[in-house]
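Ticket #4471: structure output looks truncated?

Reporter: J.K.
Steps to reproduce: submitted the chain below (282 residues) through the standard prediction queue, then opened the result file.
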Amino acid sequence: MKSNIVNQFGGNWTEAKMEIVVKYAKAYLTIMNKQTWVKTLYFDGFAGSGHIEADEEKDAIKGTALRILEIDDPKPFDIYYFVEKNKKNKESLEAVIKENYPSKRAPVIQEDCNIKLMHMAKFLKENKPFRALAFIDPYGMSVNWESIEHLKGLGIDLWILVPTGVGVNRLLKNDKNIPEAWLKKLEMFLGLERNEILKHFYSDKTINTLFGDETSVNKDVEIIQKIGNLYSQRLKTIFEFVSDSFVMRNSTNSIMYHFMMATNNKTALALANDIIKPKYRI
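Returned output as attached by the reporter:
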């Protein structure tokens, strides 16, 4: 059944991003299948409707949620947990799952991903046999750092899309005159005080002129890449390892997103980097 509700396709990197997650999930399940005591949980914090609209000339394609549900070899996940805040998308995905994957334990919950990330952390702490693979593909800067912090020390591999160019960079105004609401958003997203954020991305230069010393504000030239590096560094305060980033660019070659995986498992890190590496050509 094709869903009546579709999400918007974002270009070649959207397909590449889904391929990365699905390929990783298959390898992840192959490893977990050898550990008979382990139970597996797949968590999708922004699950969508189940389908993604490609363009006017092509039919909608399956989203990540449905592609993950299709995996049966070497084994399916024991539990799937889909979070979708939009009511229509939630109901659409729920209907597709009910019709096409009725035997799978795959609830779709209409809720804020931040809340459910904290609930998942609690679940993993209370259910030791479970290991989780999480995919966080947010709408803008909607994932708060506080939510990520709850995952510290847990058996979870976290793939997260970071809106470096289309999110954080747009809030970091060239003249450093950033509105209060934007500063608060940056603090919530990065988990840093505003003074630390501004110091990281701006420098002040004092020039001696005929009329005395004048100070100019300089925004870092390679700021988008620097945002990606900072987020990776922040993840390393929660997880032992963070993968290389799959850098997503638009048609003008401007960086839009950094896609990375955080884990406490060294084998998982190597696997993620092996999967990401061929995608650098996108």
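Triage note (M.O.): checked the attachment and the full token line is present. The chain has one domain: 7-281.
Status: closed, working as intended.
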